[in-house]
């Protein structure tokens, strides 16, 4: 048992400050003295510890002393064989997972509602996505988890796949049957990668859904900076006992900076210590606030703040009750419209709004009176803006038809076509409805009429469409000279 | 030995009162509560170090908050006071025999108990069977009511700390909903003088203008508040504070006041040019 009250990186930085080291190394601001404006803005304390790797502080690319110690303590806190401090966001943790188990041409089984980072990395490494149809809740307009039977089917159809990737939970708090999927994948010799960008709290609260490490998964990307309280861009990558620590470190070092920020690393160290010591108490408070908010919001009328009643034993195997997702459709407003009203009219910034839902991120930093404001503002929006809801569209799951690997499509000869002329062409780039950043189209996929209609509607409702080279999305890059499914690469090969 | 209470009115301006002794001090779930005894101002209450009221000048604030709307609305039966844990607003209200029910919603029970113990001058306002005290967040309380109140008095602290929710658009909107079709809302409206107070004042005015068809501002001179120049908001669904002002009807109540009178009612709505300009800026 390691001592969770320790924070080796923090301790080393404190010691460095006392030693009053004379810096003849980078960064050039030299403890802030060389950049007074920045020091005034961020504070001397902060600039003082914005330092480079050195003997007493270890080196993130090759940890042997304090970073290694901090990683060992973190690993124990998360029940992992090893934990890596990540400074390039959970994006970098997710991408390191894929790169660790897939090479060019390898298949990976995953739900469509993955984060964009997963598909982006497939452009680099040449892996081929096998999408599992996520179940949909059509009333709420949200994608749920993967059914175990659907994963089973994907595995049977693609016995050569190298890995299965699972969201635990989704942005909305939906969990798949992680243990069942993990056991199934392992029985077929596949690795299990878990995107736990929204699941840090599971590791520190006994009443929340199962964690990737408990379920026996091989790797997990944990966004400590979301519910864990560390600085933006800091994250943990966890591995199970079957993974090679050295191999994963090599993979991380391919894309991670060699100048790891000690601000980010110390924030991970301190936040891990806080959650290891006080996590249960912290998340008990969050759960109380969210449960209260859910009750009050459901009393307003029309709004639906959902919770465990969605659990169906399969595609909603469990629900993360720290998430406050509210369906707005019965009010006659799209979630993104409520999101905009909250921000523009009531000075309340929520995490995101999609076509049917708005999600408020509640953490230990919130106060009960802020919850009252959110609830009251929602009540006011209903009183002032409620309208007929029959014209509203919800997110539909559009089964992607993957004709080429993302890498082949992205690097193919491309042409930019006006969007209305793109039907039946093959997309060579991303189209994402942001947030939450789940792809509508990925490179290598057939562009259908349904998809084009959805893009037009979501744009009209005020969703921002990100990804394409043409940021206004007037034109789309498509694969040159390929017009319909008849010419499909992967499908013909299969 | 000299003991002084000091409040920073701005970063560069201090306001100090010499203290005889401290009568009460406690950290509640919401704020730090102190009651002091002074020679000049008698007893006074501070929350988180900010002056709330003194025995010497509280009559100005409480009379202006209550009697102005009472001289406009012809039939006030049910009143909601948000905040007002010291009892001063309630004290002025219970002088009207025609009022049937007064609901006081104070977030911090400890403020009420401290005032009942040490500030009888205002807390005596709670000694009336028409008063119903609720200890909860005003924003939450008012959300549940529709078409119920004739008058809502927002007797709040400043727009930071526990009272910040009472300066929001959602709160004013919820008050509009809780009022009857001819209801009036009067609120503590901060000061136009120092820039930070003036900004809060403008923000509040903008939000009230957006929520109510009639939204006017009136002033009073309150020596112990920053700059001494203080404003109140008069927001109404139907009655205009001047054209519907009925001085004779109000005089018939036979209420003795030390600050408020019928000429002052009309004069209080005449604002300095610089204040009018600040208000116009956010009305557009």
Structural account:
The complex is a heterodimer of chains A (494) and B (284). With 494 residues, chain A is α+β, with helices and mostly antiparallel strands. Chain A is 38% helix and 15% strand. Chain A has a seven-stranded mixed beta sheet, with helices on both faces. In chain A, a hairpin with a 4-residue loop joins strand 4 and strand 5. In chain A, helix 5 crosses helix 10. Chain B has a seven-stranded mixed beta sheet with strand order 8-7-6-9-10-12-11, with helices on both faces. In chain B, strands 1-2-3-4-5 form a five-stranded antiparallel beta sheet. Chains A and B meet through helix 13 of A and helix 5 and helix 6 of B.
The greatest interface between two protein chains, and residues involved on each side, is: A-B, 15 and 14 residues
Average pLDDT of chain B works out at: 96
Helix count of chain A? Answer: 16
What's the overall average pLDDT of chain A, rounded?
A: 92
Would you count the extended β strands of chain A for me?
Answer: 20
Structural shape of chain A: globular
The low-confidence runs of chain A, each spanning 5 or more residues with pLDDT under 50, are none
* CA-based gyration radius of chain A: 23 Å
Q: Roughly how many Å is the radius of gyration of chain B?
A: 18 Å
Structural class of chain A: alpha+beta
Distance between the termini of chain A: 51 Å
Low-confidence stretches of chain B: none
Largest sheet of chain A: 7 strands, mixed
Q: Assign the structural class of chain B, choosing from mainly alpha, mainly beta, alpha/beta, alpha+beta, or little secondary structure.
A: alpha/beta
